[in-house]
Design brief:
Blueprint (H helix, E strand, L loop, with lengths): L2 H8 E9 L11 E4 L18 E8 L4 E12 L1 E3 L4 E3 L1 E7 L13 E3 L1 E3 L6 E4 L4 E8 L7 E10 H4 L8 E2 L16 E4 L7 E4 L12 E7 L6 E6 L5 E2 L14 E5 L8 E5 L6 E4 L4 E7 L11 E9 L7 E3 L7 E4 L6 E5 L9 E8 L4 E9 L8 E7 L2 E6 L10 E7 L3 E8 L11 E8 L7 E6 L2 E4 L12 H23 L1
Parallel strand pairs: 2-3, 13-15, 14-16, 25-27
Antiparallel strand pairs: 1-12, 3-11, 4-9, 4-10, 4-12, 5-6, 7-8, 7-11, 15-23, 16-22, 17-21, 17-23, 18-23, 19-20, 19-22, 24-25, 26-33, 27-32, 28-31, 28-33, 29-30, 29-32, 31-34, 34-35
Length: about 500
């Protein structure tokens, strides 16, 4: 297939530029464009009168295609900010075959105002294979004009990565769409394998006005959790008013740590470039998308995010303490001599403190290794090591000193060792939390406190208290000492003789 055949097979572009006071209805308006066809005969023709006009186009793609309508420039009507609506004229883009289909899937997109060519590039992506675009003005003005282009694109060419099986929020696929809902989704994250994608309705085009969609993200694997990324390396662009005290009032995304809107509220995002990396405390996250009536400059496209399965919280051998949010106790027993745990990687409120306590049996040494990769500056977030009732170390951000990771090992024969984590600023999530590895070791050594920290090039050692040698080893040491002296004396005698 040559390049022309390839282009005709996969997409066809129609470009329409009109200055409304110069054209006649029979010349351009009220026409249907179909895939692979030229301009059709007028379906309706009536000369414009000098005080108003109405003009429409219908674009019909193949059943496995979407219609992408792009507004490159326009000068039609005026937006009334007080009443939040278009006046004197507008452009309406409908996902369907006519204005009678309005609202069958999602609300129509209506815009107005003055946009020079290149000043705006507004896209409308349909879910059906037909788009209906109408231009309406209540009064003929000298500068009424529009500049639009239309593409018929194969659905699997709009975005081939990831595959439809892993894409949620797109009505072209309807994968995970809740029955009898317009845009509510159920997302089984255990099937994602790091590939699942969620998006706002209409993405990568403008999202519809007055729309509310819910994305219930669930991990059905035992004790597994959910991880969500919005913004950052992925697109996030929602309308945000610049009026005082009007932030995130109409167009926003809300996130809940659970399956319903009564679950703990994690945050609200809006505007352009906002970002969130969220980790659930349990097996569910809920994302709620809401849009208002729509306002200029109509340059927002919604969001494109990723969801993944998150490993289960690790507190091997531990017991969660009652009436606490993140305190754990680890006791030595025949079935629990070593394990690991991590401090919360999910949402924590401000001034949070979490405590991990380790309790040994008689004649046991407690050994713990604290692994730190990130802490906030100026000790806003830190870790304390407690040997019994004594604080023996405090780890703040300056201890990292630009290193990627810091491992700190401590041991004691005291019956209790504790690690306290404090986060003054709170967190939405922490993808790389602080980990602790612990061991209960049988032994006779009288080691009270020891710390060894290492990371790549640097090694730091703390204080080690005096140690006593086990009496059972004393005879061996004495024999070695006498043997050494005997050999040394023989060598001296041989030298002088």
């Amino acid at each position: 297939m040559d390049i022309r055949g390839f282009i005709m097979h996969h997409c066809i572009a129609v470009v329409i530029v009109a200055v409304l006071h110069k054209i006649k209805a029979q010349d351009l308006c009220n026409q249907t464009f179909s895939y692979g066809s030229s301009l059709a005969q007028p379906m309706f023709a009536e000369p414009y009168i000098n005080h108003a006009f109405y003009c429409w186009f219908k674009f019909v793609a193949k059943p496995n295609q979407s219609v992408v309508v792009t507004i490159n420039g326009a000068s039609i009507g005026k937006y009334n900010h007080e009443h939040r609506r278009c006046e004197r004229g507008s452009i309406r883009m409908i996902d369907g075959s006519s204005s009678a289909d309005s609202g069958n899937i999602l609300p129509d997109t209506v815009i107005c105002g003055q946009f020079r060519h290149g000043q705006i590039k507004l896209k409308k992506v349909t879910y059906s294979h037909t788009a209906f675009v109408e231009f309406r003005s209540n009064k003929l003005r000298k500068h009424n004009s529009f500049d639009i282009s239309v593409d018929f694109e194969d659905i699997d060419r709009i975005d081939m990565t990831p595959s439809p099986e892993y894409t949620f929020g797109d009505l072209k696929y309807q994968n995970g769409l809740v029955e009898n809902s317009v845009c509510d989704w159920e997302i089984p994250v255990e099937r994602c394998y790091g590939k699942c994608r969620i998006m706002s309705p209409g993405y990568p085009g403008i999202y519809p006005p007055n729309t509310r969609c819910k994305y219930k993200i669930t991990n059905n694997e035992e004790q597994q959790r959910v991880e969500l990324q919005l913004g950052g390396p992925y697109k996030f662009s929602l309308y945000k008013s610049h009026e005082p005290n009007d932030s995130c009032r109409e167009d926003y995304v809300m996130i809940y740590d659970g399956a319903t809107e009564s679950s703990p509220f994690l945050g609200r995002l809006c505007g352009i470039g906002d970002a969130a990396h969220v980790i659930s405390s349990g097996s569910h996250l809920l994302l709620v998308f809401n849009s208002g009536p729509g306002s200029p400059p109509w340059n927002y496209v919604g969001f494109d995010g990723r969801v993944n399965d998150r490993w289960a919280s690790s507190h091997a051998g531990g017991i969660k303490m009652e009436n606490t949010s993140c305190d754990w106790q680890f006791k030595s027993s025949d079935n629990n001599k070593e394990g690991d745990m991590h401090f919360p990687d999910y949402q924590l409120p401000t001034e949070s403190t979490c405590l991990a306590t380790f309790i040994s049996l008689p004649k046991e040494i407690i050994e713990i290794t604290v692994k730190v990769s990130h802490l906030r500056a100026e000790c806003e977030e830190f870790v304390e090591i407690n040997d019994g009732t004594r604080v023996v170390d405090k780890i703040c951000e300056d201890r990292l000193a630009g290193r990627r990771k810091l491992d700190l090992t401590y041991n004691t024969t005291n019956a209790q060792f504790a690690v306290r984590y404090t986060n003054h600023g709170g967190q939405l999530s922490n993808p790389i939390p602080i980990w602790i590895e612990y061991k209960f070791i049988s032994g006779e050594k009288n080691v009270r406190y020891h710390v060894a920290a290492s990371n790549n090039k640097e090694k730091t050692t703390g204080v080690t208290s005096s140690s006593t040698i086990n009496h059972a080893s004393a005879p061996i040491v004495a024999v070695l000492y006498i043997s050494f002296v005997y050999i040394l004396m023989n060598q001296l005698i041989a030298t002088f003789v």
